[in-house]
Amino acid sequence: MNQLNSIILEGNLVRQAELSEPAKGFKVCKFPLAVNRFCKNQKGESFEEVSFFDVEAYGKMAEICEKNGLKGRGIRVVGRLKQNRWKDSEGKSQSKIFIVAEHVEYRPNLQKDEAQTVAGDDKLGDDDDSSRRNSQQAEERDSTEEKTEETAEAENVVF
Q1: 18-55 burial string, b = 16+ CB within 10 Å, else e?
Q2: Full-model pTM
Q3: Deepest in the core among 69, 102, 124, 131, taking most CB within 10 A?
């Protein structure tokens, strides 16, 4: 019976995902993932802890990860831990632990116009203009959310 080996990580891609084909017809996509954790120390001061994880995807998922895996993009990876072991040239035992992706989800990429509209309109003045802008923003957000849900469904990769 297999024992439990499962992991879920959510973070940002450190750099562009890299696709390779080590054997004919076998594709591998490798990418590093940064995961931020915000916590407080004993004095109550907030600090950020960043962890970096190497992730690999195989086959069709590797191709999709390479296409969507842009530096800085938010991503959720569900997978398992794998350990490679070997002896180096001096005969010392070496090992590396990484994540094998079994399910990958990408956060939507907001275009600059949308991000500026959502973030920037709050700062403009007049009350009448403000209420009109707020209703326009709500309409834009609703349509963006619909697009985001469609895009998210299209970008969910499950194999």
Answers
A1: ebeeeeeeebbbbbbbeeeeeeeeeeeeeeeeeeebeb
A2: 0.66
A3: 69
